[in-house]
């Protein structure tokens, strides 16, 4: 993947924001969810490490948000 590409997955023309939205708005929690919702990483799979990295970061962000909500409810 080119460093200047607007796509995270060039084969299926999937952008980073589509992967992020799949996690944030469509409930994706696994790579299979991302593949089913966006079709990213269903071609040559060269983008798999990048897609996995975005998924991991988004899931970590969700856990922090959940923890923050719990703290808000407890106080
Ligand atoms: S670059 Fe994503 S499947 Fe080929």
Please give a quick description of this structure.
The chain has 75 residues and is mainly α. The chain is built from three helices and no strands.
Q: What is the helix fraction of residues, given as a range?
A: 55-70%
**Termini distance?**
46 Å
Strand content: under 5%
- Describe the sheet with the most strands: none
Uncertain stretches: none
Based on secondary structure, the structural category is mainly alpha
How many H/I helices?
3
Structure description:
This protein is an all-alpha fold. It has one domain. Helix content is 59%, strand content 0%. It has helices at 16-24, 31-38, 48-74. Helix 1 packs across helix 2 (31-38) and helix 1 (16-24) runs parallel beside helix 3 (48-74). Bound molecules: FE2/S2 (inorganic) cluster. The site of FE2/S2 (inorganic) cluster (FES) has 12 residues, from loops. Residues 9-12, 40-47 line the site of FE2/S2 (inorganic) cluster.
């Amino acid at each position: 993947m080119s460093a200047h590409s607007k796509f995270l997955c060039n084969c299926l023309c999937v952008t980073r924001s589509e992967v992020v939205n799949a996690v944030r708005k469509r409930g994706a929690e696994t790579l299979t969810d991302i593949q089913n919702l966006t079709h990213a990483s269903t071609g040559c799979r060269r983008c798999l490490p990048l897609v996995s990295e975005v998924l991991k970061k988004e899931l970590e962000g969700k856990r922090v948000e959940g923890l923050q909500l719990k703290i808000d409810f407890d106080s």
